[in-house]
Amino acid sequence: MGKCLLPTLFLILSITAFADEFYEFKKGDPIEHVLQVLQDPIEPVVYCTEEFEKFKVSNCDAEKSAIIFNLFDENYKLIFKVDSQIQRYRDVPEVKSDPKRMKDLNKISDTLRCMKDKMSNAQVTCQTNRSLGCLDKKRVAYVMNLPQFMRKNLNLCPRYWKEEDAHERAGVMFHEISHFCGTIDHQYYWKLNDAPNEKKLVKNSTRLTRPNGEPIYPDHLKPPAYYHEDIACTNADSYRYWADNGFCLPGYDCAKR
Questions:
Q1: How do strand 122-126 and strand 152-156 relate by DSSP bridges?
Q2: Is 138 helix (H, G, I), strand (E, B) or coil?
C-alpha cells in the first residue's frame, strides 16, 4: 500500500488511428489543442512519474504481513474518520467561542495529519520475546522514534498477536503511530468506559531545598506539591480511545461518556 501524489501528471494517449503515435498533455495546455488532437477514440493510460516510499514490513511471516497491511489500511480510514468527527465540534457554540477548546481541536487535527504522513514511511517489525523491547512480557508494542533513524520503526511484540483481537490491534497501532507525532504515555484507558481526561495530576519535581537542607523558596512562594498538567492533545492512549470509540473533546464532553 503506498500513496501516489502527482505533482506532475502526464496523460499519455494512444490514438487508435495511429498506433505508433503518442501525445503528451500537461496541465495548462490549451483546451483547443487537446480537442483538436482527440479526434478518434482513445485509451487513456495514467502513469505516476515519481516513485514514492511506502511502509515496510520486516521479520514477519506471510500471514502476519497480510494482517499488518490490512491494519495500516484500517488506520488510514480511522484517521479520516476521527478527523471528520473533530470538524463537527468546530460549529458547536460552546467550543467555537472557547480559544482553548479550538486550540486543542487544531492540535489534535495536526497530530492526525502527521500520523497519516508518518505511516507512509514507517517500518513494522515483528519482534520476538528475546528482543530487548519485548523482554517485559506485558508489553504489546513499542516504537523507535530517534532522529538518527531514517524510518520510523513500529515494533510488535508476541503478545500483540496472542492477546489482541482484530479491533484492538488497530487501536494499539493507532496509539503507537501517534508517538511518531509527539504524543506521550501520560495515562492509559484500558476500559472502554475510561474516557480521555483533559488534565493529569502530577507531582512537582521542583527542588525545594539546597544540598545543605536550606530552603530555596520562602513558604509564601513555595511551589505546590502537585499540579495539573494539560494532556488533552498529547496523550497517546486518547488517540487509541478515539479510534475505538469515536471522538470526544477532553474537558468538554468526554466525562459524559
A1: parallel
A2: coil
